[in-house]
Amino acid sequence: MSKVSVYLLLLLTLSCGVSAATISGNVYDYMLSITNDVKIEVNTAPRQIIVAKEGSYSFSVPNGEYILTATQQNNGIIAASARENISVVDDGAFTVDLILFPALDEEEKLLEEPIVDVNIDEPNATPMFIGFILLILLILIAFYLKSKKTEKKEKAVVIVPQVEEDDVAKVISIIKKEGGRCTQKDIRKQMPLSEGKISLIITQLESEDKIKKIKKGRGNIIVLI
């Protein structure tokens, strides 16, 4: 390969990395346990598909609007699924945890294609694959340099305001009544308190390791520990 070709390849890779972001996270079942062998897809061009073998995934995407889907099959039938809309407006790292919920009977259907680790639709994808690998390396280098700058910073101490014990006990009672897990919105519906005070109670319980809070779309799922 000539020097000109090498320079052009590096220039192309750097130009692609300017607007690239990483989307990653864990995959949970509806009992909030890490689950494996889940097909995860993001509708980039070309689309990217992987199988989360150890309960986690990661994609590199340019800026744009995307739909992230996850499906788990049982004997060729979709048994559980998750779907998240993602807006990437800047480069960096985005964490999106996926929670699989069982498919309703009328939503079950045969999978249209077998599960594969990676599926690239466009032919002659070798140069694109090489560019993708180089892009990942650039992102890892950027994260490493950023971490070196911040590793000496002291960890901020979060002081959680105390709330009334009766309100705390009532929140725990609501979660137990809902089977040990519910959304923060459900708690708000059952308590005559402001949204800010509910958030303070949730924060205090989380700091005391009595609950676990998992991000789901624009809301939170609260789980008793």
Characterize the structure shown.
The protein is α+β, with helices and mostly antiparallel strands. The chain folds into 2 domains: 3-150, Carboxypeptidase-like, regulatory domain (Immunoglobulin-like); 165-224, Winged helix-like DNA-binding domain superfamily/Winged helix DNA-binding domain (Arc Repressor Mutant, subunit A, Orthogonal Bundle). The chain is 32% helix and 32% strand. It is built from 5 helices and 12 strands. It has helices at residues 3-17, 126-150, 165-177, 184-190, 195-207, and strands at residues 20-28, 38-42, 48-52, 56-62, 64-74, 77-88, 92-95, 98-99, 101-102, 181-183, 211-216, 219-224. The strands form 3 sheets. A 5-stranded antiparallel β-sheet has the order 3-2-5-6-9, with no helix packed on it. Strands 1, 4, 7 and 8 form a 4-stranded mixed β-sheet that branches. A hairpin with a 2-residue loop joins strand 5 and strand 6. Helix 1 packs across helix 2. The radius of gyration is 22 Å and the shape is globular. The relative contact order is 0.13.
